[in-house]
Amino acid sequence: MKITGAKAVIQSLLNEKVEVIFGYPGGANMPIYDALYDVRDKIRHILVRHEQGAAHAAEGYARVSGKVGVCFATSGPGATNLVTGIADAMMDSVPLVCITGQVAASLVGTDAFQETDVIGITTPITKWNYQITSAQEIAEVFAKAFYIARTGRPGPVVIDIAKNAQFEEVDFFYPKNFSLEKYKNFNKFTADDLKKAGKLINSSNKPLLIVGHGVIISQAQDEVLALAKKAHLPIAATLHGLSAIPVSFPLYVGMTGMHGNYAVNKLTNQADLIIGCGMRFDDRVTGVLSKYAPKAKIIHIDIDEAEIDKNVKTTISLVGDAKKILSSLLPYVKKNSHQEWFKLFFQLKKEEEIYHQKREEKFKNKITMDKVFSVLSKITDGKAIIVADVGQNQMFAAKYFNYQTFNSYISSGGLGTMGYALPAAIGVKIAKPKELVIASCGDGGLQMTIQELGTIMQERLPIKILLLNNYYLGMVRQWQDLFFEKRYSFTYMQNPNFLKIAEGYGIKGKRVKDFSQLEKSLEEFVNEKEAFLLEVVVEKEHNVFPMVPQGAAVDEVRLE
Amino acid sequence: MIKTVQYNVVCENKPGVLYRITNILLKRKINIELLTAYPIDSKKVSTVNFTVNVEESKINNIAKQIKKNIEVIDVNYLVIS
Question: What CATH number did the domain enclosing A79 receive?
């Protein structure tokens, strides 16, 4: 029996067991929306308020559900509005399939109304993209798109469907167990590689294991713990590796990188062995490359071969799935103890705490972002999913919330997209309706995607919005403070009455500016059953430390 | 040190594949000095050859980045000088 291309699209999504779509209809995808109407009891469609929100919501959904996030947008501006989210997903290895409408094939290339070269625009920021101009192509292209998005190192795929293909009729056969020869085997390590890696770990006196997002994607947390326990390895996490390992785990020593922990950054350059697992030695992690870990041999575990030797030259690389590699590596590793090495971490941790105390003293009885997250962490026992925006709030959320549940810190790391948190929290809450989901935003970031309050209202999503308002673009202001002689060039913001905006969307809210009210307000916020906006007015000029200044070595980390 | 490198890419003969390959060069601001592309193997597969001047440390990474593309089957390179 023949069905229309639009129905074939929806049937393909059902075959892929898609349950949620984030999208926005328009002229070029109306046939698909019409077909979606028939299956609205099977597929939940979330109408966002801007296509960027659809992409970020799909990212949030994908990151906590382990499924592919799906979004719909129309041609032209609908598609270009997705671009930030697609680029974000590419940088952070998030599986997305974005389906954009396109003008009819006969009009492509004529500068037709709402035509844009979506394939041209998205090529550098997708794993794969394809323009469908005939309904015949739909089934296979969809099977291929979903397979590519979720296989290996995950990432975004764009399918651009010309309007004529949505109307055309076609016999629909969906390929079963689609696969590509190229993606058949990601595990390219040998027993010899494992043996050599084991030998390096066994002979190391100052090892450091750094876990990244790959550990979360591969769900290799148990394997990480087993290896670290056996070889007695200090575990550090990158920003995206946060919450792979509970913060309370005794071998966990903190975060790496620009705003990572003092001890981790200092001792990276003392280590004789760095094991990077599911991470890519990004510049925010390494500081200036020429001075990164000069004494260390490097074992790099990653599924993407192109990441090996890209930034840091490895001694041994193990290419493949982190879970598989770590479990295969374990028998080659001997039981060991590094008590003296661990002592150094604890000593330097104390030093960081002294400086932290000094700042606490300076801001006594005032609200700073670190205190907000410390109190929130205490109230929730570290059991909440924090969806952090970008900037100071993101770093304070990373450092002062004691993540106890797996994969509970969701943020835009690679692209650093302001405005990410609110829409991403929508996707997270839909995937995890029973979890406490908190969107942490600054006053700048919230206003970049604030219209998604409408989506929260319409879908009745009990998302907790924690607005940390310092009336500044805080991270830029911090850099101006430290590196531009306090010339606060255009970082001050005159802000609206956020509570009235929330009220307009039927969302309850509260404003707190007095430190004595902070804990009580956060308790109310956490216990509230519906969506809630808590605006916390925080100190205007409070900086995130430690900090590795740009262009400095990681051991040149500043404590103040 | 800058080296002159000749890359040979075997890929599917489809629209946009060359664009994906050259994008990897563009992203790194690398100019193409010489380029040939033609179908082989009953037109399903193409060979793309190009010569670039590139920093020595980036040579292998460029090959790996090109190889990541879905339509790319194989990548080899030869350092000419």
Answer: 3.40.50.970
Angle between helices B59-68 and B17-27 (to 10 degrees): 150
Q: Which of A280, A314, A344 is the last residue of a domain?
A: A344
Q: Which of A90, A418, A475, A547 is catalytic?
A: A475
- Name every chain A residue with its beta carbon within 8 A of the beta carbon of B69: 128
Domain shared by A47 and A161, yes or no = yes
Please state, rounded to an integer, the average pLDDT across all residues of chain A: 97
Number of Cβ pairs closer than 8 Å across A and B?
29
User: For the domain bounded by B2-79, which CATH number is listed?
Assistant: 3.30.70.260
Active site residue A503: no
Does A258 qualify as catalytic in the annotation?
no
Residue with tokens 């952070």: A92
Confirm whether pTM is higher than 0.90.
Answer: yes
Instruction: Examine the pLDDT at B42 and tell me if it is beyond 90.
Output: no
Mean pLDDT across A397-420: 97
Token pair belonging to A120:
């041209």
Distance CA A108, CA A224 (A): 50
CA distance A304 to chain B (A): 9
Radius of gyration of chain B (CA): 12
Task: Give A309's contacts in chain B (Cβ within 8 Å).
Answer: 60-61
Q: Does residue A351 fall inside a structural domain?
A: no
Q: What is the percentage of chain A residues whose pLDDT exceeds 70? A: 100
B2-12 and B45-55 strand pairing:
antiparallel
Does position B41 have pLDDT exceeding 80, yes or no?
no
Chain B stretch 42-81, residues whose beta carbon is closer than 8 A to a beta carbon of chain A: 60-61, 64-65, 67-70, 73
Considering the domain architecture, whether residues A293 and A422 belong to the same structural domain is answered as no
Residues of B in contact with A305 (CB under 8 A): 64, 67-68
A548, A524 in Cβ contact below 8 A?
Answer: no
